[in-house]
Design goal:
The protein is α+β, with helices and mostly antiparallel strands and 315 residues long. The chain has 12 helices and 11 strands. The strands form 2 sheets. A 6-stranded antiparallel β-sheet has the order 1-3-4-11-6-9, sandwiched between helices. Strands 2-5-10-7-8 form a 5-stranded antiparallel β-sheet.
């Protein structure tokens, strides 16, 4: 299993950051280049190969990404899943806009471009054939937005995030890699089928997508609550409550759950950040309360989670 590699512009002088980031981008996905609107650029990237999946997790300030075609010897696809911020994708005159939770498939054998706000994104490049076996119409689905608000979309998002939590702790187990690859293809196909909704459900799905995207984008706001969601989405408080009720939860419970999930992920992915810093960055204004909630949800304290200790090891 390849080592998880980490890149950061923090220690690079501002005038050199764009050049450095372009070198990293081309090294990870050959032919990729980045353009930024000035020297005020900051980025962080994790790169990892699991079996036949080439994955990166990246967050940066505003930028534009392009890619020149890669060789056609091994037909592959590339998937971009939006975690934070928004993006506009273009390939062969087809356009697609993503909000948090959404994803899109493209071909790395044809030039494409992406316009990004300040963002966090998961990217996976992989062979086309295994997905085509599970989703025969995959070529017709290229450059179409796959909604992240569907049950399959949410499960797929959570699955990819969970992989990164294992980045430095996963054993060198070829069987684990094979299993992860199979699950990845199954999850992508499931999420893509779930995005093909009947037209009668489009309004409901779009409303849920808007609400969840708003919540995802404002998890760092301590004042985020039902009323602020309603105001931001121009809907009533009752409508917000109904959106979450159809998901079997409440706005408050969902917000807490998403903050804790994101905190669990960042505790592992950002070892340089203190636990209190992570808690406050995700809308908690009391580190003791954060620790209590984290322990209730995951069975261990944040520090032990970061160290890879399970609840059983604490007993």
């Amino acid at each position: 299993m390849a080592t998880l590699l980490k890149y950061h512009t923090r220690d690079v002088a501002p005038p050199d950051r764009v050049r450095y980031w372009n070198e990293i981008a081309d090294r990870v996905f050959t032919g990729t280049f980045v353009q930024v609107p000035g020297e005020d650029f900051a980025g962080r990237m994790l790169s990892w190969r699991v079996g036949e999946l080439d994955m990166i997790r990246t967050d940066s300030t505003q930028s534009a990404v392009g890619r020149t075609p890669m060789a056609q010897d091994d037909e592959r696809l590339i998937l971009h899943l939006q975690c934070r911020g928004s993006s506009e994708h273009e390939q062969r005159q087809a356009e697609c806009a993503l909000q948090p939770g959404d994803f899109v498939l493209a071909s790395p054998h044809t030039p494409y471009s992406i316009k990004l706000t300040g963002h966090e994104m998961l990217v996976v490049e992989f062979p086309r054939a295994p997905l085509a076996e599970r989703f025969p119409c995959v070529d017709d689905a290229l450059m179409q937005r796959m909604c992240g608000a569907t049950p399959g979309g949410r499960v797929f998002h959570d699955f990819l995030l969970s992989l990164w939590q294992q980045g430095e702790r996963a054993a060198e187990d070829p069987e684990w890699e094979v299993g992860v690859n199979a699950v990845f293809y199954d999850m992508v196909a499931l999420a893509m089928r779930g995005s093909q909704r009947p037209s009668a459900q489009i309004g409901e799905v779009d409303l849920r997508r808007r609400v969840l995207a708003m919540v995802s984008a404002h998890l760092d706001d301590p004042a985020l609550r039902t009323a602020s969601i309603a105001d931001a989405c121009s809907i009533s408080v009752r409508t917000v409550q109904n959106v979450f009720a159809t998901m079997g939860t409440t706005p408050t419970a969902w917000i807490l759950d998403q903050r804790l999930r994101r905190a669990a992920d960042r505790l592992v992915a950002r070892p340089d950040a203190s636990i209190t810093e992570i808690a406050f960055a995700l809308g908690f204004n009391d580190s003791a309360y954060f620790t209590r909630c984290f322990r209730q949800q995951f069975g261990v304290a944040p520090r032990d989670w970061r160290l890879g200790r399970s609840g059983a090891e604490q007993e």
